[in-house]
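The protein record passed on below.

***
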Amino acid sequence: MAGRPPPPVYEADTQGVKIRVQPRFLHDESRPASGQYVWQYTVDIENTSERTWTLIMRHWEIVDSQGRRQIVDGEGVVGQQPVIESGASFRYSSGAPLAAPSGMMGGNYTMISDGGEEITARIPTFSLDSPYEQSRPS
């Protein structure tokens, strides 16, 4: 819609694995009167290292403005375990529903290199803001 500023982009870098996240509140899918708030977030994973990395696990921590905490662990992302070669990137979008008008998300990806090295790539903590309330990561 016109008049809304673009959503912020949050970024973290772990050993050349750059992770950028851009959350966006979904007005059409949210029902504030029923306590349902929905966001889409788009993640860009850019490999600026010399290695090829495979994203094998994800770990998310989601906290809403009421203090409710959810932990989400699983294999890969959006049904895939993407292989990201040196100089390449991978982008996907997913959703986050909350029962409160704002919250924060963050976490990490477990990545394994073609040589067997494992790293924990940090996903930057990002705000899930709606027009109904705003919170900021500290």
Observations:
- The radius of gyration is 16 Å.
- The chain has no helices and nine strands.
- Strands lie at 10-14, 17-25, 37-47, 53-64, 69-75, 83-84, 89-98, 103-113, 118-128.
